[in-house]
Amino acid sequence: MRQFLSMATLNPFRALKFRCILIGLIGAGFLFGLGLSLLETLGWLPFKAEDPVVQPILYLLLSLSLGPIVWWIGHRHRLQYRALIGTRPKQFSWTAAVVLTVALLIFSLGAFQLSFYGLSFVAPTLVEETLQQPPTLMTAETSLPGFYRSLMLLNVVVVAPVAEEFIFRALLLHRWGTKWGTPAAVVLSSVLFGVLHTNLVGLFVFGLVMALLYLKTRSLWAPIFCHMLNNVLAIALELLAAPGAETTLAEFRQSSWVGLILMAASAPWLLRFMLQNWSKTQEALPYFVNAK
């Protein structure tokens, strides 16, 4: 009983509100944008402010500012980063993590195929625009294509997995877990993760599995590893696709059956993992176990 009261009293997530972090990020984004505009006015930028390379630069700066913002907000509440992140998980099969990540990628591809098939009858223009978007590392509009590709590769493979896992699986899971309970936090944080990405169903399941993986290992390194691997494999698939090949709406609709096969092949693996580890939502959140 005394341990429970101590944990409740020292819980920084009762005061560490996510909206404060969001406001901090919005403010940082405004300052970074203002700074880039000022540098362009002074002629100190090698590119124009409307150049597409500005987007990965701002994403990188915002991600790097996340740590100081959380530290500033959580400092007086004695937030322990080590307890939040955890150590390298012991007795954890990285081979199983690779298999799990591959299954997630296959499921996400199938979910994208099926969900956008239905969407193509409601918003065909949106689906066509999505299908015609250039690969992640390619753009013909920037004046610094090499720099753009390098930044995008860094953001997609390293920065995004670290920042997103820290926000969704560490901060949100603990904040909402403190407020509404861990099961609700797992579901709601995964829903938000899916909503903020193009592939709603696929990324919802991805977020769900990553949350359970974090609860299982009590280490953020495990979901970060899987997230990085997922993004590397996704980029590799993009690069393996025929360069310059564009899929028409009719071709996309005709191949929608592939999505069903992909989901059917990967769903049993993911469902098994979720059923085996859902009981982890009834245990103490990783922060409080690691902080002991």
UniProtKB/TrEMBL annotation:
It comes from the Bacteria. It is an enzyme of class 3 (hydrolase). Residues 151-233 form the CAAX prenyl protease 2/Lysostaphin resistance protein A-like domain. GO terms for molecular function: hydrolase activity. Keywords: Hydrolase, Membrane, Transmembrane, Transmembrane helix. The chain crosses the membrane at residues 21-45, 57-74, 94-127, 184-214, 220-245, 257-275. Its EC number is 3.4.-.-. This is CPBP family intramembrane glutamic endopeptidase.
